[in-house]
Design a protein that fits this description.
Largest sheet: none
Number of domains: 1
Strand content: under 5%
Distance between the termini: 37 Å
Helix content: over 70%
Order of helices and strands: HHH
Oligomer: single chain
Structural class: mainly alpha
Radius of gyration: 12 Å
Number of helices: 3
Length: 83
């Protein structure tokens, strides 16, 4: 996947995850991209723990895996900020 596609995919995933976790007002476009890309890596790692395939390209399965990772990432950040 080329870098432009990673940025678009990360922005979309990060934005949807921030809407789900109600942090959209706190995050800008750059942070949405970072959360989406890191979330894709984290989601792939989580899926590998369960014996499944991680992100495989620009498709619905990879979107769901990346969204799972991004939501987990935002939840961890919110928990650390409260502590």
């Amino acid at each position: 996947m080329n870098i432009i596609l990673w940025i678009v995919f990360g922005a979309l995933v990060g934005w949807i995850a921030s809407l789900i976790m109600k942090t959209d007002a706190e995050q800008g476009a750059f942070l949405n991209i970072v959360v989406g890309i890191v979330g894709a890596v984290l989601g792939g790692w989580i899926m590998n723990l369960f014996g499944k395939v991680g992100t495989t390209g620009f498709n619905l399965y990879s979107f769901v895996v990346a969204l799972l990772g991004a939501v987990v990432l935002i939840a961890i950040v919110k928990a650390v900020r409260r502590a």
